[in-house]
Amino acid sequence: MTTTAAANDPDKKGDALKAQRFQMLEDIAKELSGEVVFPTYFDAVLRLRKLLNDPEQSIANIARAVSVEPLISAKLLHLANSVVFNPEGRQLVDLKSAITRLGLNAVRTTALSIVMTQLMRAKGMAEFADVTRSLWEHSLKSAAGAKVIAQKLTRINPEEAMLAGLIHDLGAFYMLYRATQYEELRHRPDTIKYLIIQWHESVGVSLLNALGLPEEIVEATVDHDHLRPTPTTIRTLPDIVYVSNMLCGGHFEWLLQDQPDISAELTTLEESFGHLRPEIDALTAEMHRNFS
Prior knowledge:
By secondary structure, this protein is an all-alpha fold. It has one domain (about 5-290): Orthogonal Bundle (Hypothetical protein af1432), CATH 1.10.3210. It is about 65% helix and about 0% strand. The chain has 16 helices and no strands. The chain is globular and about 50 Å long. It starts with a helix and ends with a helix.
């Protein structure tokens, strides 16, 4: 076992660190074939647990609260599209419709089960608290951005766009959680950032497929952090997720650090869509109030 001193040595290189990087990626590939539950943002999970335990809460209040928790949103959508709740095969692509289909009891029971599992697994996430909070804030703002963009610039379902924006970085949350399982990685935020930069998009796609999300939502998250020409017209869900993610970058510019010409491309994007920021900020603030 690695000593505490060695684990905290920022200059430590070598076989142990490399081995655990590869081991983590290998373990992720194996785990995605089974049941996947992991913590996203600890404080959000605590607040959601309190709300779900309140028998007086309406389905509307629960829906608003659940809509800011990426993993639980994804799981509930998958459950609503399962054979048990969807024998006619009419697939849903937005959380509001999914919660209506499931009903209050099923939503509360399922969400509470996921919340409790998250709480049990969240202990090791303390070392990444700042990163997970920032990532959660970015996901929330991206969800708001996607909804506003869909409403203002397209005929695409705003609720579907909002869900896609909320879960687009779920792979990064999952990789942070997996990193807590490895001594050599747990104390090295820069190493984890490197792994996330390299792998979070592909891991995210595999994760969303493992969670059973509709194909169109999964495809909308592909290469969302890879710079591309700014679309002159927003036509597709992938366009919405890309523009919203870039517009609402928050603390995650480091995800783009290896890409050339980032400043010029983001300037073009800002010129085209920056006028939507006030509405995005207002919706983000509303989402926070709904969950406070």
